Amino acid sequence: MGLAVIIFDFATIAILINLFVFQLLNAQTSSQTVILKEGFNFISFTVVPSITAQQLIQQYQNIEDIYFYNPFAGSFLSYNDGNLSALGSGKGYIIKAKSQTEISITGEAITNTSDIILKPGFNLVGFSKISGTTKFKEFVEKSNKIQGIYKWNSGSGSFIQVIRNNNATMVELLDGVDPAISSGSSYFIKVTQETVISFDQEYIKIDGEITQNKIQSLSLSKQYDNVNAGSNYDLNKIIINADYSNNDTKVINGVLWSVNSGNGKIENNQYFNSLETGTVILRASYTENNVSIYADLNLSIIAPPQILEMKSAILNQNGGEIKLDSQISYAVLPGALNDSAEVIIAKINNYNELYKDKPIIRLNLTVIFHSVN
Length: 373
Known about the structure:
The chain is built from 4 helices and 32 strands. The relative contact order is 0.09. The protein has helices spanning about 1-25, 55-60, 135-140, 350-355, and strands at about 30-35, 40-45, 45-50, 65-70, 75-80, 95, 100-110, 115-120, 120-125, 145-155, 160-165, 170-175, 185-190, 195-200, 205, 210, 215-220, 225-230, 230-235, 240-245, 250, 255-260, 265, 270, 280-290, 290-300, 305-315, 320-325, 330, 340-350, 360-365, 365-370. The longest helix is centred in the N-terminal third of the chain and has 25 residues, at about 1-25. The chain folds into 3 domains: about 25-215, no CATH class; about 215-300, Immunoglobulin-like (Sandwich), CATH 2.60.40.10; about 305-370, no CATH class. The strands form 9 sheets. Strands 9-13-10-11-12 form a 5-stranded antiparallel sheet. A 4-stranded antiparallel sheet has the order 2-6-4-5, with helices on one face. A hairpin with a 2-residue loop joins β25 and β26 (about 290-300).
């Protein structure tokens, strides 16, 4: 019985050793390149570092010190002070460099990261792995617990600040810029209460809620237009912009057009109406990340122009006048024409709808005058 147990234990150990070796051999090794500028650099590691702070400083002589902020104590740890040795992913670090230098860190690729627990006050947060785009203003707006986020600007030697104002009602860009949170960087984040941040999803989450750049509205290059009854209207000529929560705007394609009010049908972005006049409302709908928005185009269906009466005459350099009736006439002054030309005067129905505010049309010495019925 005892021998059987011993054999079983040895077998178990062998399996565990093989499993460990298999995982070790199949671990993905990656590298991260960081260009350090002279002075302070706020970074995070996008790999699980395989070296310690001491080894990193020994490898790169231009590194003066490495700092880590402890939010529990409200103070910094540093290599030179002897209280910082291990380096890890999902944390924020400040590396002070004597001059600009490029460093390379190798380690296991990050597959999963733990949630970050922020303590009241300032926290130095490193983002090792994120997807999507989240800007500072949107990040602060997501939770009233967040008082501000600060990015170090090595060029000016100061922080870019996006903060919640004293009334906690608005988020202000104190420096007029709204940076995006990026992997491989670290930022100071100030909170009023304990807050949980996770960023191993498609979007950054705060206390379990997704923080993302959300689409908010659509705007059309035209909100009003007209088309003749019985004719089609090409909706492809309408430029559609999407407005986002971080104030970005971009042209989008793939909207779904529908007839929201009135008659007619839409096929392949072509609106076909009947011979009825009136107003139809065409709706452009768009969905992104489960957020649906729409914008409306008001289209007036008008009767096509009809020539009710027309008269023509040949006039030359001497000028002359052509009359349609006692009220409608057109005169050409002497010298206005360089050659003989046919002048056409017409009485047109629906002139106001189609030709209002348009000038007389002159083509190849032919003058066409449109009049109101």
